[in-house]
Amino acid sequence: MLKKLIINNFAIINKLQIDFHHGMTALTGETGAGKSIIIDALGLLVGSRSSIDFIRTGQEQLKVQGLFEVKSSSPLFAILDEYGINHEDNQLIIKREINRKGRNVCRINNELVKTNVLRQVGKFLVEIHGQNQQQELLDEDNHINILDRFSDDDFQKDLLAYQQLFNEYQDKRSRLRTIQKNSQNLVQRIDMLKFQIEDIDSAKVEAGEDDKLEDEKNQLSNFEKISSALQESYRGLSENNVGVVDALGNVRDQLEDIMDYDKSYKELYDSVNGAYYQLQDNAATIADQLENLDFDENRLDNIQKRLITLDNLKKKYGPTLDEVIEFGKKAHQELSEIDIDDETEANLEKEIQQLQNKLLDLAKDLSKKRHQTATFLEKSINHQLKDLYMPNARFGVSFSSLDDNNLSNKGIDQIQFDLKTNLGEDFKPLVKVASGGELSRVILAFEAIIAEKMNVETIVFDEIDTGVSGRVAQAIGDKIYKVSQFLQVLCITHLPQVAAMSDLQFEIKKETVKDKTETQVSLLDDLQRIEAISLMLAGTKVTDLTREHAKELLELAQGEQKRLD
């Protein structure tokens, strides 16, 4: 249970310390005084989302601390052990600080923890019921979770076993989808590789082939120019009487006659003689070129076509023929290494079908037990609704089944809560027929039934009695008091009948201190409670009559408490 709550710099709260006790505690006061702010601060201690907007104006950080006393049988001790948090005396001190830079510091028994740990621990400490719980009841997707909360331990074990098997089933289905997708991609890849290999191999590409063909194309394209140049060159070198070779031969003969007379003549002779034989060789080479020179128009056309083919390959597979050839080698290698494991896919499909069959058997068993729980819940809720002055209302649970191939982690059931509020009416979905006051009573009916099974230490009702009055208000007060026999209950209320049923009553007020608004909390004694409940009855002006009425209401409440005890 919550024993102490300390709040600093939270919204309009400057400094506040509240000591709580067993039983039912009412928090009363005018709207906007800060009642829900206190609950918001408590929510922070059990892992609610933080915000720098919570920090009091003009302050740099807020701090919330709580002292909890926990039953030795609570499951939360296993979580504390998991994170190495000491809990020798079954007490927990939780602290949370938030500054304007967004820094969020959480401690449990002085050990730093993350907010997710705070949430894990908090779900066994405090459960807060207010507008969110109405939304939970209005969410049909959540009805199956609510129903399962009323099931016994054997069902919970079976559900856990089912969910573990379901997770394995989902993992295998996910793996199969991945394999099938990969297989499809591999088939597409194989087709692409085969096309690329065929494209390159059919061309029979040779390294440097494009350069050789370019040279040959240039020769054939310029055949007439080359032929003319070679002929003119040969005539200039070799024609009798006018050829350069004959002229140079005559020079050589003249120098040969005088080369023995001077060393310089000998050097001239050697130079001219070498040039003479070089020109003879050149003339012979030119003659060979002329003899071999041949123009083939078809060959030029074939070369141009071949170069187009090679250019296309280079555009697709690499800027050079060497890279095209290397691309082809890698494609061959990759194709040889690809393996589509049809056997693995077939085995997975078989395993998935076997798991699905097991899941269906377990899901049907869960469904059978849910129907039994639903029967119990319907009877219990309807009994509670009678106590809450809805004698003609009937609560029902309707079932529908999922397709065998669309199992959920809850099984095959889809659950919907139904309600008919008057005689002669048909059952309709709860979300469509319940008013605000009726929803409040349905929620309270649920809580009254489940109170004995809950693993939390403290339950908070944040204006759960909204939308009701008169004898219904008294009935709600009785139900909340009944819940407090099993759990510590904190109840924010504007109803005097509910406040009167509490063991303790705190009054929350706003005061102005040095031009700033502050929330103050006071534990009321017997006389102060009469005054506070008188104000709740009268609205504005308290008279002796309303005081007498308040006193009478408190006395009647004491009688109700004894009756309920």
Automatic annotation (TrEMBL):
Keyword DNA damage: yes
Coiled-coil ranges per UniProt: 338-372
Keyword ATP-binding: yes
Entry keywords, A to Z: ATP-binding, Coiled coil, DNA damage, DNA repair, Nucleotide-binding
One MF annotation (Gene Ontology) recorded for this entry: ATP binding
A UniProt-annotated Pfam family: AAA_23
Domain Rad50/SbcC-type AAA: 4-233
SUPFAM superfamilies: P-loop containing nucleoside triphosphate hydrolases
GO biological process, alphabetically ordered: DNA recombination; double-strand break repair; SOS response
One GO term describing the cellular component: bacterial nucleoid
Similarity comment: Belongs to the RecN family.
NCBIfam families: recN
Biological function: May be involved in recombinational repair of damaged DNA.
Protein name: DNA repair protein RecN
